[in-house]
Each structure stands twice: as C-alpha cells, then as structure tokens.
Amino acid sequence: MAVSVPEYTYHPLPGIRPSHNAADVKSPLKLSKSLLKDPDALMNFAAYRVDAALQCEKVNTTRPDLPSLAGFVKLMTIRTKLSLPTIMVTLIYVERLHKSLPPSARGDFETPYKIFLAAVLAASKFLDDRPIENCKMASLCDGYFTLYEINEMERCFLSILNYHLYVDSEDLRGFLNEHRCQLKAGLYLEGW
C-alpha cells in the first residue's frame, strides 16, 4: 500500500530566521513534499525508531485489534496530515525519550503506539499554529485509544522529556547525520 503524504509548502524550522523563504533556506534539509522519494520507507523508518525507543512486549495479548506498528504509523500520519517537519521533530523527540529512559525500562505491547502518538502531539504543538488537539487525535485513532489514555500518554511523555521540546536546525542536522543511511532511502537529501 502506497502512502500519500499530504501537500506541504513551507514551514520554517525553529532556528531558521523567518525572513528566509523555501527557496533560500540553508538548512540541512529543505522540507518539502518533493523531497520524498519513498513515503513508505520514511514511515517504516519512523515505526522502527519508535519501536527501538524502548524494549516492549512483542506478543499482543491486551489489544488484539491494534494493527502492526508500521501500519499504525502510516495510518495516523495520513489521518493527521503530518508535515515532514512534524515527522522529523517527532523522531527527534522519540530519540530524546530513548536517551532519557534507564536501560532497564520496559513497556507493554502498545507502548510504542503510545510513544508515537505522544511524540506527534508534542511535535504538532511545538511547530504548528493549529496543532492537533488531543480530542481530535482520539477520534482519529478509531477507538484504539481513549481521550483519557491520550492525555495520560502525553503527560507521561512530556514528563520523561522534562518538557525539553525545543528543536533547532543543529538538532535536526545532528539527527539527519546520525541516521543518514536509513533516511537516504526515503528522502532526497541535498548535498549527500
């Protein structure tokens, strides 16, 4: 199944002066729809990074209705119309969560799903003028998670990150350099 990524014009990254426009942004990645070679590869990479953030149960005994994590990431990316910058900031937040957790931390089967949703909500609220609201996210989840669960996962996620949400172009550049090989499969990256 091919995933179509919503149209994306230009969204300035934090740390980029607002006077720049899409044509002259000197960030490591001009974030636009035209840079997507393979949206499925990008969504699979996102699912992989979320799954790798925490060691979790691999057997689904509590929520048999949940799709695969990769399928869920694709579904929610399409339904929420995530922009490429929001996806990238989401992944940076997931990386920060991973680094904040003790090595002995463990999660349930549905924990990666919750991590993804909480990271998307935080990234949307950090970047967007009209962010995704928790009640909207609950309605887009097809009943997989309730509004109460979404509120709780967001609170826990932010607490573990110690509310460290600021992302600038250096954070983005570092993330892109660290995951260069995996991201090249799904993105056209200038100068690589």
TrEMBL record:
Pfam families: Cyclin_N. It comes from the Eukaryota. GO terms for molecular function: cyclin-dependent protein serine/threonine kinase regulator activity; protein kinase binding. Coiled coil: none annotated. InterPro entries: Cyclin-like_sf, Cyclin_N, Cyclin_PHO80-like. CDD domains: CYCLIN_ScPCL1-like. One of its GO terms (cellular component) is nucleus. Residues 69-165 form the Cyclin N-terminal domain. This is Cyclin N-terminal domain-containing protein.
